Amino acid sequence: MAMDQYLMFVDGQWRPSSDGAVFDCTNPYNGEVWAQAQSATSADVDAAVQAAQRAFEEGPWSTSTPMMRAALLRKLGDLIADNASELARLQVRENGKLIRELEGQAKALANTCYFFAGVAEIPQGETLSASVPHMQAFTLRDPIGVVAAITPWNSPLLLLMSKLAPALAVGCTVVVKPSEITPVSTLAFAKLIEQAGFPDGVVNVITGAGEVGSALVAHPGVKKVSFTGSTAVGKQIAATAATRLARVSLELGGKSPNIIFPDADLPNAINGVMAGVFAATGQQCLAGSRVLVHEDIYDDFAKTLTLRASQIKLGDPQDPASEMGTVSCQAQHDKVMRYIDIALADGAHLATGGKRPDDPALSEGLFIEPTVFTDVTNDMRIAREEVFGPVAAVIRFTTEDDAVRIANDTPFGLAAGVWTRDVAIAHRMIRKLRAGTVWINNYRKVNHVGPFGGFNESGLGRENGIHAVDEYTEVKTAWIDTGSTIKDPFNPRA
Ligand code: NAD
Fold first, then answer.
1. 93 lines ligand 1 (CB under 6 A)
2. How far is the CA of 457 from the centre of ligand 1 (A)?
3. How many CB atoms lie within 10 A of CB 260?
4. CB–CB of 96/32 below 8 Å?
5. Pocket test for ligand 1, best of 159, 233, 456, 460 (most atoms within 8 A of CB)
6. Cα angle vertex 33, ends 32, 36, to 5°?
7. Residue 258 near residue 416, CB atoms below 8 Å
8. Is 38 helix (H, G, I), strand (E, B) or coil?
9. How far away, in angstroms, is 230 Cα from ligand 1 center?
10. Atom in ligand 1 nearest the alpha carbon of residue 332
11. Residue minimizing CA distance to atom 26 of ligand 1
């Protein structure tokens, strides 16, 4: 069967891997192998980093002004808006997420471009109060150099854009390594980069598995690694980067609490919990996978959640009527099923789901029924480890302090949700929860204006918002003497 073939994008050229090796892309909805992408060799990694280095040091990008970079980002934003449906369709084919979610994300990418186009032109330094006669002092920000942007499969383009837009706004150059599950959408995106007119070598895309990412991180020409993915790989990247003190930002995993107080608007809270844990088939770093419910409402809330989860309509992710798609790949499917077994063995009660659906129409796809475990305690592995699948662990709490203790008793710290009508509880919880994002009476709201990142093992650094440029620049301080007489320090009387 003829398959779509995708080349890598290096130095403005579309290239095969230097040894001709390719890998397959499989549609998780029907098992169809529909495309092949290149497995980059270490020579390909080196060529991409060298192209990015040249573009950083020489040529039009090295002397580009903020206004020029902003104009290119705006053009890219327009092209993304025009091609959002196709970008969404490709991502669905790769990772099995719902078309309606990925269309929304694809449209939002353009807004990120426009936002960082604006950021490119706002002042980035400050005038210092030097308190020294004749001395003027100020700071400026230098672009850091070549950035390695390594992305996962769950929202390939959204997560890439959070890295690319600020890096390009400040004048860095970038080598992108998408997940081996989702190379095609990133390569289609690179066509838009080419069309927008970014100079050769400013953005390069190489493809392949973890070892390609690992070779990229180890390359001495890479000055900064911006990574989104698992905590285990994030730690390896940080260790490699530390050997030459390359900068890193890490957006990693989570086990976020979604906390329901008894005074909450419960219909709203149920909807928020459902979206928090089951959207994207649970394959979201910010998943509210620990549902903490006050003891007074625990039984009723768990019953309603169980019913609602059992009613979610699984189906073809390209069909806008489907409510949940597949997980992304066989390994992910097996991992989720393993966690279901672990939860059962640890004594959690399986309230619904926990298996593949019986519907024969779904038998080719990597589907897992929306799963709710009740009577979970926070020491069970289902409450401590990231499953990255459609599995909710419902935990009982007694008081506000108890909720805070359970919520913060985790190695992670990416996000938290709180549902209450009491403004005092809301404010106290925002202060006490150890997480990079806290939502009140809402869950999952993120966009380009809000800094996003984790405490503890959920990562290092923040993406989005104007402070994202801090991750791609070095601060330089300039001291300008406007008229003092410099004495010979070794002969002060001279
Ligand atoms: P992963 O860590 O397995 O892979 C992520 C990327 O790293 C892929 O491109 C992969 O090829 C590459 N990689 C693998 N081994 C590497 C190595 N040794 N050196 C360098 N690169 C390497 O993650 P995944 O399974 O693709 O994605 C799921 C994970 O991503 C989950 O843990 C999820 O929580 C996390 N995630 C975090 C955020 C966030 O913003 N915090 C967002 C989305 C996903």
1. no
2. 13
3. 26
4. no
5. 233
6. 155
7. yes
8. strand
9. 4
10. 25
11. 152
List Cβ<8 Å contacts ≥24 apart for 60-65: 60/199, 61/171, 61/173, 61/198, 61/199, 61/201, 61/202, 64/171
* pLDDT tens by residue, 120-152: 999 889 999 988 889 999 999 999 999 999 999
| Predicted local distance difference test score (pLDDT) of residue 494 | 64
Catalytic machinery residues: 251, 285
Does 1 have pLDDT greater than 60?
Answer: no
Listed in sequence order, the residues at least 6 apart from 337 whose beta carbon sits closer than 8 Å to its beta carbon are 368
Please indicate whether residue 179, judged by its CB atom, sits closer than 6 Å to ligand 1.
yes
Q: How far is the CA of 112 from the centre of ligand 1 (A)?
A: 22
Q: Is 209 in the pocket of ligand 1 (CB under 6 A)?
A: yes
Closest among 62, 116, 135, 139 to 476, alpha carbons compared: 139
Q: Is 236 in the pocket of ligand 1 (CB under 6 A)?
A: yes
Of all residues in the chain, what percent are helix, strand and coil, respectively (each to 5)? 40, 20, 40
Question: Which residue CA neighbors atom 31 of ligand 1 most closely?
Answer: 230
The pTM for the full model equals: 0.96
Q: Tokens at residue 442, please?
A: 């809402």
Residue type, 81: A
**Best CA proximity match to 226, nearest among 190, 252, 194, 208:** 252
CA–CA separation, 253 vs 152, rounded Å?
11
Return the residue matching tokens 């609490």. 257
**Tokens at 33, concatenated:** 């192998």
Which tokens in the block code for residue 160? 């890439």
Tokens of 205: 């895309």
Q: Is 229 in the pocket of ligand 1 (CB under 6 A)?
A: yes
pLDDT in tens, 193-236: 999 999 999 999 999 999 999 999 999 999 999 999 999 999 99
